[in-house]
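ARCHIVE CARD
SHELF: 3
SLOT: left
DATA:
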Amino acid sequence: FAALGGKLVDADGHPVEGTPVEAPPPGTHLYYRRRDESYDESRMVSMAPDALEGVLDLQFRLPADTTPDYLRIDPADHPGIYGLGRVAWRTQADEAWHELGGLPGRLGHVHGELLPSQATQGVRLASFDSDPHLEFEIGSALPQRLPGEWLEVAIRIEYEVVIDRPALHRLLERQSESIVEMVHLSRERIDVQ
C-alpha cells in the first residue's frame, strides 16, 4: 500500500506525494497459562524493545497470584532468527534470581524451526512468518508462594536477524514454501531407497 501512495490523487485529480510507512518495532510478548488454560491476550505481558538486533535481557512481571505451568515467548512480531538463552525467575519475597535449567528439554509447542544452538542451555528459532514463538514448561520449578505475590521472569533474547520490512515478508513466504517442497521431496527419495 505504501508503494502505491505516490500514485494517489487528491479531489482535484492532482498527484499526491506518498510518504513511506515504516514498520513498527517488534513487540515482545510473554504469555502464561495453567495446564487447563489456553493462551490469550488476557494472560500476556508485552514490551517493545528499543533494539532490533543484539542480545537483550528482558524482564516481565506477571500479575499477583499468577503461578503459570507454561510460558510462551514471542520474541518479535516479525520473521527472523532468534536465540533464547538464560531464563530466570524470582518472586516478590525473593531477592535472588533462580535460573530455569534445561530449557531445551522443557520445550512444548514451537512455531518456527529450531536451529542448532551453540549454548547447551539455549535454543534458536527461525521463523518465516510474523508470529515466531515457543512454549516451555516452568511450573515444576516454581515454589509455593504467598497470596498476592507477583512473579518476575527474565529472558535473554538474541535478535540475530529480524525481517522488519513488509516487502520482504512475501519473499520469505515463497522461500518457505520452496523449502517445504524440498523437504517433502527428500523424504520421498529416502523412503524409496
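SLOT: right
DATA:
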Amino acid sequence: SDLALLSTSIVGHAQEITQDELLQKQRELLRSGQCTELAKFCEPHTKAGNADAAYGAHMCMATAALCAKGGITVERAGAAAVMRDSFAPKAIQNATAWVDRADKAFPNRESTLNTRIQLLLLQGDTPAIIALMRQATTAGSSVSPPPVERWMSIFASLYGRSTMDQAIAFGKALESVYPDSHKVHGSLGGAYG
C-alpha cells in the first residue's frame, strides 16, 4: 500500500521502486502540498538499484527543495505542479545541488539539461543559459541538444521576464548557434521591433 511504501522509505530502508511508481507518488504528495513528506519519500530512493528510479529520485529531491521553500504552487485539480517565479535563493541552490548530483551519477540525460535551464531561468542567469546552450549544441556534446523550438521558448521566457538586454543577448547567441533558422531571425527581429 502507499502508506507502507511511504513508511518504509521514511525509516530509510527503501524497497525497490520503478520510475513510474516514484513519479506517481511524487505527484500525489505535490498535489496534497506535502513537501516534507516528498523529501522523506524520495531521498532513500536516490540509492535505488534501478538507475532510472534513482535518477528520478534525485530529480524528485530537486523538486522537494523548491516545494519546501514555497516555490511550487500546487494545482490540486490539475495533474501537475506549477513553478512560480519567486523562489528563495537557498531553495534554488538546494535544487541545483540535487540536479548536480543527478548529473554526476547519471550523466548525459536530456531532462537534467532541461531542469538546469529552468533553474537558471529562475535565477535570471542569462550568461549561464547561453553557456549551457553553446555547450549542449557543440558537436561532440554527450547530450542531445534540445530542438531549436526549445531554445526559442527560453528566448520567449527571457523576453517576457528579463530585461531587453538579456533577451537580446540570448537571441544573438541563439542566432550564432542556428544561423540558418528563420524562426530565430524572426524572433530576434521582433525583439528589436
